[in-house]
Amino acid sequence: MNTPPHTTPPHTTTPDTATGPQPSAEPEPVFSVRGLWKVFGPKADRVPADKELGALGAAELRERTGCTAAVRDVSFDVRKGEVFVVMGLSGSGKSTLVRCLTRLVEPTSGTISIDGEDVLSMDTGRLRELRRHRAAMVFQHFGLLPHRTVLDNIAYGLEIQGVGRGERRDRAAEFVTKVGLDGLEHRRPGQLSGGQQQRVGLARALAVDPEVLLFDEPFSALDPLIRRDMQEEVVRLHQEEGRTMVFITHDLNEALKLGDRIALMRDGRIVQLGTPEEIVGAPADDYVRDFVRDVPREQVLTVRSAMRPALIGESQAGPALVPSATVHEAIEAVARTGENARVVEDGRCLGVVDRAGLLGVVAGIPAGTGKAVA
């Protein structure tokens, strides 16, 4: 997502490997997942318990055991207020993974906690509370009730919670406005476009005020223009509310646009977890490299990747950019002014980007190496 060169994008996070002063202690993650497996088939629990079986490829595992390992030994944390994207092709295990977080699908082994509470040990009552109040799901298929109006569909989750009719309709009306459906609150789903129906589903999830929003490929059935509008709607809502989100998608551009961090899955495993800049700028292996090959690097990488030390006199001249500005923004600034751009943070010049450095990033040549990225 393009942002003005002098402002920090609200959904940008510092890479785990960043240098410089760091907080003394990380806050408790919202979701913490360790060694998670989901195996379908007979005697599924033997697969994660046996290293030899767990190491088998999908075809050989099915042949030997009749089992399919949809999620294999996955570990990650979801931080408060971030958009955590799980991305992968069809069959990679991403949708199974997100359903495991609230036990819509029961994990085979591993641990899951929310705010430090063990999800796998929750009884029926606690699990119901988790799904109704703490983590709301937005699915690809809208699941709207055809006989109810937009307003009453949005209020449905509140009705399940036992909120009174007047209060729940008042709260639903707030979210009609928040997702841009003013004037449509008395229509029924059959009178709405696909994008409008998805907005109703989003508003229904937001209305119950969950701690975490879980999105399972919610926009994949929409046409490209409506899909882009809905992506921008998610970005806007996240900027306004700072709500924690876990977003599942098979679309790399969607992942790069929405994600603070991205977990890229293949055959049930996470093959790389990092910021969009880390995924595009430093692919972990050939699979990831092929995935990001056609991504415009200048739209994702920041000016830190093109920066060099300032020479005498350069720290006071030229347009100023924040460190999180993209290379694309820097190219615009340098082209517009004809001067090198300064990277400035808290009034201090961190370095300079010039034409050679910017062209090197676009060409895939790491700063100072003279060698193109394979």
Task: Describe what you observe in this structure.
There is one protein chain. By secondary structure, the protein is an alpha/beta fold. Helices cover 36% and strands 20% of the residues. It has helices spanning 46-49, 51-54, 58-65, 94-101, 124-134, 150-154, 156-160, 165-178, 194-207, 224-241, 252-258, 276-281, 286-292, 297-300, 327-337, 355-363, and strands at residues 31-40, 68-78, 83-87, 109-114, 117-118, 135-139, 212-216, 244-249, 261-266, 269-274, 320-321, 341-345, 348-353. The protein has a six-stranded mixed beta sheet, with helices on both faces. Helix 10 (224-241) links the parallel strand 7 and strand 8. The chain is globular. The model is unreliable at 1-24 and 368-374 (pLDDT under 50). This is Glycine/betaine ABC transporter ATP-binding protein. Residues 1-29 are annotated as: Disordered. Pfam families: ABC_tran.
Please render the helix and strand layout as text:
Elements: E1 31-40, H1 46-49, H2 51-54, H3 58-65, E2 68-78, E3 83-87, H4 94-101, E4 109-114, E5 117-118, H5 124-134, E6 135-139, H6 150-154, H7 156-160, H8 165-178, H9 194-207, E7 212-216, H10 224-241, E8 244-249, H11 252-258, E9 261-266, E10 269-274, H12 276-281, H13 286-292, H14 297-300, E11 320-321, H15 327-337, E12 341-345, E13 348-353, H16 355-363
Parallel strand pairs: 3-8, 3-9, 6-7, 7-8, 11-12
Antiparallel strand pairs: 1-2, 1-4, 4-5, 9-10, 12-13
